[in-house]
Amino acid sequence: MTIQTVSTNTSYGGVQGVYRHASQATGTDMVFSVYVPPHAQGAKLPVVWYLSGLTCTHANVTEKGEFRKACAELGLIFVAPDTSPRGPDVPGDANNAYDFGLGAGFYVDATQEPFARNYRMWSYVTDELPKLVAENFPVDAKRQSVMGHSMGGHGALTVALRNPHRYLAASAFAPIVAPSLVPWGIKALTGYLGPNKDAWRSHDTVALIEDGAKYSGFLVDVGEADNFLKEQLKPELLEAACAKASIPLTLRRQAGYDHSYYFISTFMGDHLHWHAERLKG
Ligand SMILES: N[C@@H](CCC(=O)N[C@@H](CS)C(=O)NCC(=O)O)C(=O)O
């Protein structure tokens, strides 16, 4: 599997790169970013996966996430995939809405037409891209963790709950915790997986926990001034599910913060320290 370098820039003594490759999973070219911190030659480093939210590419967090200083200090590789397949032949939302189709893959493998061929973001982020990154960067595959924002917070929590031994830590900014119950999620899961709600449960954090999935603990930040908090995010449902299942949850309600990268970048350092603590060799 080969990758093409789009750009590299030195930052905090490491290298911030952007790369392109032909994805088998999505049948399209995909672009992703990787930050490799300064490290001793031959060293293998832990890797943090960051899954982005609606409308994002790799670029939003790469440019606005302010993760590099902490990653350089903590010795963490940081990988940011795109949020959907893209290209002239990839079907999107019929009305060009921002919350379905391009930029809104929801980290599932679609089963419904016309999306099933390209919208395979679950396979992409849990299988194809990890293999590609391990082949091309100094990754210690035994030390991986995952975080994300909003739709990507949903992705991070579901990926962790379904692969608890591979991802040693999981955290989220403003995650969609119960997509089966909120407008963004209902639209996406119906469109990609069809109307049978049984098929949605393995892509719903609260449902996965209700169905018995276990995890060592989550760090979740939400902003109290986030316009999506009450209708789409509903952190109280995660709080209740974790309490019932005895899954440790650190849920922080941050006064004054909204849904934006001003919020994410403020608490990015806290999250990376949380991950580094759990990724120690
Ligand atoms: N206000 C946005 C809603 C989508 C949104 O807030 N997206 C979040 C993730 S759910 C985001 O990170 N947007 C890109 C950015 O802030 O850079 C829109 O209508 O495009």
Question: Biggest sheet: strands, sense, closure?
Answer: 9 strands, mixed
Low-confidence stretches: none
Average pLDDT confidence is: 98
In this entry the ligands are: glutathione
Helix content: 25-40%
C-alpha-based Rg, rounded:
17 Å
Question: Total helix count?
Answer: 9
Which sequence of strands runs across the widest sheet?
1-2-3-5-4-6-7-8-9
Family: Belongs to the esterase D family.
Function: Serine hydrolase involved in the detoxification of formaldehyde.
Catalytic activity: S-formylglutathione + H2O = formate + glutathione + H(+)
Organism: Bradyrhizobium xenonodulans
Characterization of the model:
The protein is α/β, with parallel strands linked by helices. Helices cover 33% and strands 23% of the residues. It contains nine helices and nine strands. The protein has helices at residues 58-64, 68-74, 121-136, 151-162, 183-193, 205-210, 229-233, 235-245, 261-278; strands at 4-11, 14-22, 29-36, 45-51, 77-80, 139-149, 167-173, 218-223, 249-254. A nine-stranded mixed β-sheet has the order 1-2-3-5-4-6-7-8-9, with helices on both faces. A hairpin with a 6-residue loop joins strand 2 (14-22) and strand 3. The radius of gyration is 17 Å and the shape is globular. 50% of the residues are buried. The model has no long low-confidence stretch (mean pLDDT 98). Belongs to the esterase D family. Keywords: Hydrolase, Serine esterase.
